[in-house]
Amino acid sequence: MFKHRLSQTCLSILLLPVFLQGLAASPAGIPQSNPAFKLEQIARGLGIPWGMAFLSQNEIIFTERQGAVKIIELDSLKITSLHGLPEIAAAGQGGMLDVATGPDYSRQGWIYFTYSKRSASGVVTTLARARRDQDRLNSWQELLISDSATATGKHFGSRIAFDDVGHVFFGIGDRGVRDNAQNLENHAGTIMRLNLDGSIPDDNPFLGDSKARPEIWSYGHRNPQGLLFDVEKGNLWSIEHGPRGGDEINLVVKGRNYGWPVISHGKEYWAPISIGEGTEKPGMEQPVKVYIPSIAPGSLLLYSGNAFPQWRGSLFSGALKLRHLNRVSISTDNRAIDEERLLGELNERIRALAQSPEGWIYLSTDSGKIMRMRPRQ
């Protein structure tokens, strides 16, 4: 009898992992006070999830800044690591940065990445693309190894956006050297525009200028960490870190100068002293919105879904320093007319944002979590 019971117990122990594998994990509810949505945690214990994008209704691909790319399946919450990455220079503010699915992803299969890479001149931001085959990234192509090396580990950028006519945009910060942003002979402090294969469009604004890099679309940026293209209106939006005060939302226009460090709404870190020549100057663009004090933006999303119709057309950004989800209403003539701060009670540095096919909002935190907001009903 004892041997029979023992064998049954052993069999049960052996079968337990198989049984557990058949059970789908469930998102954990997170208490919060806003009646417009409920908040759920779908992953935790990750590295810093720096970028996120939907591969399908059930799959999110995300990066971890220390040098990993993973996929989470939303029905089971299973996480799979992808192999085939190049060497990533994960140090300072650099590492594995943004990820975005290319136009016509379902047919073409291209996934775009930005990351920091060691080059002969130093560590630089790089734009690349690859295709996924199960748990591997194949056909890896480096589209632009930027000329942006400095002696600092700061301000690598970098977010990716696509228009609807075959171009990819991505930004790089000034790399901790302020004057870089006004120097068109390197890529630091700029937003760039390429064809999807990495070639240079023949209508880029500085093409043919011997003292400018032909990839540059706009310049005078301190550290753009949010970038999106509004296909409906044809607008390219960025959000970038200012110094102490002076974070900016900018409407990015071809060939324009966004002023850093000649003009700024921020102050020096070491004293309450203005930076540059003031807050405006002829020939330099004004931001659509300035944050004083700084929220330290980590992302930018234009909400276009049906799940939260009251937010349609709003710009969302994760706030790293002031730890909330920031929402800004934009008027039909592209003015910032209202601001709302959500999820402050979480006290989380919100890093990346993504909108699901259902119109739910997914967000990641520097504490290694992925969460989602969806209607209560």
Question: Any descriptors?
Answer:
mainly beta; Neuraminidase; five-stranded antiparallel β-sheet; 2 helices; disordered N terminus
According to DSSP, the number of beta strands is: 25
CATH superfamily: TolB, C-terminal domain
The major sheet is characterized as:
5 strands, antiparallel
Give the helix tally: 2
**Shape estimate:** globular
Briefly, what CATH class? Mainly Beta
| Oligomeric description of these chains | single chain
Rounded radius of gyration (Å) = 22 Å
Q: Could you spell the SSE succession in H and E letters? A: HEEEEEEEHEEEEEEEEEEEEEEEEEE
| CATH architecture call | 6 Propeller
Q: Which structural class is indicated by helix and strand composition?
A: mainly beta
* Count of distinct structural domains: 1
